[in-house]
Every structure is written in C-alpha cells, then in structure tokens.
Amino acid sequence: MIIAVLILIYLFLRLVPPVAWFCQTFFPSNIVLNHFRQRDRLRWGVPVGLAGVAVYYPLFLILSAENQQWGWLDWLRILLGMFSVISLAKFALFVPFSIVLLVGHSVREAILMWRVRRQWRREAKAAGNPTPDYTAEQREQLRASARQALATR
Question: Does the pTM exceed 0.85?
C-alpha cells in the first residue's frame, strides 16, 4: 500500500510540471492573461477580466445544461465544462489581482520618484542652490526612468 502511494506521488511529481507548462504556453486564456500581467498593460486588467468572464460564462451555461443529450460524447462536455470553469475563475480573479498589482507598481514608482527628488533636493542644498522646482516634463522623465529602473529589477 505504501509503495503504491509512493509510486502515485512520484508519477504526480513527474507529470504535473510538463502539463502545467503546456497549459501555460498554449491555452488561449493563459496567453491573454500573461500578456496583460505586464506593467504597461495592467491598466487593461479590468476590461480584459470582464471580457473573459463574458466569454466563458455563457460557455459554462451551455455546457452545464441538463437537457442536452450528448450520448457517448459526454466526456467531452465534462472536459470542456472543466476548462470553462477554470478559465472563468481565472478571469474573474484577474480583475482584483490586476488592480492590486497596478496599485503596488504605482506605489513603488511613487516611492522611487520621491527618493530621487529628495536626493536632488539634498544635492542642491549641499551645493548652495535653491530648491529646484520640477516641471511636468521633468516629472514625466523621472516617472519613465523609475519605471525602467523597476523593470530591470
């Protein structure tokens, strides 16, 4: 009995990583979510998540209808139903997840910009110059450099 359990655990550990890689690489919903999980595309997280829910929820309803007679293709309905439920959950969870990621990135950028401006003020004060005022263009350049610095980490 213990040997059978160990064999099952071994098979599970050997089969799960390739299957997970295949799903992450080739399933359309995973490709879309990976594309919009990047920093410059996070602002589209809510519309993409809602669009994914709008696509997969009707598919789930169609596949879960009890009055259909699938016959021997019932296994196909079960597999498609599981896929649609998993995809529906991923897109539904992507909406708040993308908001949290976007807020986290914005906070990190703001902290980095604050540190750079503080450093510039200290350097200006040490040199005896007046405290610099930053134009909108300088702030945008600072924001772009902060995003680039955070992307390289």
Answer: no
Q: How many domains does the chain have?
A: 1
The 3-state DSSP class for residue 76 equals helix
Give the CA distances from residue 105 to residues 39, 108, 136, in Å, rounded to whole numbers and listed in that order: 7, 5, 21
Find the domain containing 131 and state its range: 42-152
Question: Over its length of 153 residues, how does the chain's per-residue pLDDT go in tens digits?
Answer: 889 999 999 988 999 899 889 988 898 888 999 899 888 888 899 999 999 999 999 988 887 777 666 677 777 888 888 888 888 999 999 999 999 999 998 898 889 888 888 888 888 888 888 877 778 888 888 888 887 887 776
Half-sphere exposure of 52 (CA within 13 A, CB side): 26
Enumerate the H helices of the chain as residue ranges: 2-26, 28-36, 45-63, 74-126, 136-152
Other CB atoms within 10 A of residue 48 CB: 20
Q: Is residue 138 part of a domain?
A: yes
